[in-house]
Amino acid sequence: MSKKFSLIIFTDLDGSLLHRDNFKFDLIKDYVKSLIDEGIIIIPNTSKTEKEIEEFITELGSDLPYISENGSSIHGLNLINTNFPNKIVLSRDKQELIKVFDSKVPENLKAKCKFISKMNSKQQSNIFGLTENNLKNALSRKYTIPFLFEGDKKEKNRLFNILRSSSLTMQEGGRVLNLGDNTDKVKSMNQVLKIYKKVESKIKVIAVGDNFNDLDMLRNCDIPCLVFNDQFKLDQINIDNLIVSSKPSPEGWADVIKMALVKLGFKD
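Above: the chain's sequence. Below: its structure in token form.
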């Protein structure tokens, strides 16, 4: 069929495109590469670090633009258009964020925040499900600080509100919470689209996720896709036209993309 619009897929990685436990995607690698060959722009939009995403890109064997650390920085837009910037930073450095955290969060709540960077390597490995170089890459953060919270729901909500009033965020992923700046996956996605619309007016956006910190991204795209996650009760997710896979990642990622492409008329 003739190309009627440019298509961008913004996708989470862990639990969405990558297997939730072993982080593999061999079963769908050829499919992902075939989408790129067809001119579809795929942009990982993830809590992962630059080094982790670059490892994924190397394994894929195709250069991709990407967004790291929950919207903190955007990379490689010049791959889409040589006039676009190579890097855009939307976050303050993590040391600045820690200073704000220390000055604004009361001691009783601080005591319930267990920062991963202060744990020993065995504890870190158990939390992330990673070892050696992969663990080192996951901890190589510039803009976000992963932690566990040992308080109750009421205390967690209080912490969230304190951080938000201090222009910080607390993003909830599959394994940890992440302290970050006042940015997120949606803001970075919209920044990319703002730049891309300077050269392309007809754009359709698919967004793929599997967890709580992906839901706003899914609410702000043309075709929202949720990869199976048994943590979710679908009747509690208020997203119109949501496509949901019956399989977990990575097969679930391919399934929702195939359905989305048919829905857009991109594929018969």
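The two ends are 9 Å apart (CA to CA).
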